[in-house]
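> @MW can you paste both from yesterday?
MW: sure, first one:
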Amino acid sequence: MLQKIKKVSLLFFCLMTITSCVEELDFTQLDDYRATPVFTTSAVYFTIFPYQFFDRSGVQINEIEEATDIDIPTNNFLRRKTVRIDFNAQISNELEADFILQIQLLDADYSPIYETKEMLVKANDLTYEFNETFDLRSNPELKEIKGSRLKIKNNTPSVKLNPKDNTKLQFTSYYHIYLDTDA
């Protein structure tokens, strides 16, 4: 008798589980679905030591500027389909000075077409994070990026750096690239 009650209870439980979660399916939702694949790729990585803030005669300089080419694939499909880019950076500053970092995106003539917000990294801040989103639908000129210029400025020039010090400022960054397959 007990076994029969267990079987009936189990059958009842299974029947309730199967039928209780049934809902009418709405396949029209697929009409509004837009696939947006996301790719992540590294962007810029560098390490700066205190000696790099000194000229050849040993005088401390307060600003470093470096321009570099950006080799973006000229694949028309990717250029047309890219709708947004999230730029993410992590900065570890072991130095005793505050620094302002800023990145300019350049066109083929090395003219600035976009400038990121300034990144103010305090002395000994080992966990600074920066995020900026580039909307390529409202800024289509960003699809023509050919280079970048990085400016690093000592924001506390009264602090004298030691060129023999092994502390460093380390910059790591990556992009999240969003494609709209319906674009």
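MW: second:
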Amino acid sequence: MSVFAGQHAYALFDAQILFGNRSGDFTPFGENSATELSSTEYNFAFHLDPIPLVPVAAGLNISSNTYDVNVTDHYMTELTGYAVTPEIMAWIPLELFGLEPFAKLGYTIGASGGKARIPVGLLGVTQELETDIALAQTGLRMGAGVRWAPPFVPLLSLVLEYSIGQFTMQTPEFDVGSVNI
């Protein structure tokens, strides 16, 4: 007989609160060199598992980021954003040492916004300008991880997840002073 015993709960939905680090490269305004970005990412995700005993669920992942940008190298001075990712999650319903592996696949649709510094001479600008910009963000996101449900705390799991993605950020045309960019 065991003092702590765990068992699977066949839930209709799950909710997750996640946080971590996001990093990558960003090439603003079609430049040849990229700026390294890093951010603390905050996520909320929920999944619906409509078919009992089938280890597949569908849901949404909603994330928020405020990036650290190196303003000395490029025109971007500030970049924040959110992303909504419809995703599919699948898991192996067998545990090894109480760990349950899972994988996620999703497609991000979101937006980022920020400030850009347009230096003298670029695009015919005669004085340095600062403007707000908006970026549409799309791309594939994949993740894998493990979930551990402590047997002594009902309805709670600890999750360790690693995700990777390739995102395209496009800016619509906007006006800076009398210049259309």
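> thanks! The two ends are 71 Å apart (CA to CA).
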